[in-house]
Amino acid sequence: MAQSPQRSRLKQFVHANFSPAPLYPLKGIWYFTSHRYLWPLLQGRLLPLTLLSTAVLVILFLTAYLPLVAFLALFHVTKGSAWVNATFFILGVGNLLIALLFEALFVDNTQVDIFDAVVVAEGYEHLVKTRRPVSDDINESDPVKRLGAREKGAKFAPFSFRQIIEFIFLLPLNFVPFV
Description:
By secondary structure, this protein is mostly helical.
């Protein structure tokens, strides 16, 4: 049975314009909570990140939010759009500051270890073995314990050129008026 052209166009529109990407953070949280071997890797990082994020956002909202709303209200005709844009701008700046501070102060090679542990846990040891030794002990249920010391490559680069350019170019998008 053939689909009507209208239904086919609707399917194409939905497929082209809607992505499952917003679900990925939720899937990541679910994966983290359901795989206990990841807990020790992030245990020492979650509390400092939570405190840092809370402090940065509170300070930004207390000091910069209202002046930014006043400035944006000069250029926004729509009632309320200055409040919305200022909120997203402050959250974007907060994201920038949190990322810079967290990567400068707290992050080491934990991201590389987490990635390698997940790849080993999913059964793709051969991909990790090119960069670090992996134990062949299949009785070991903890993939983190199967990982050896890193021999080469996979260095964490917290202030990469790509990341800096991304922050610089994407931050001004918050000045586009919300209609």
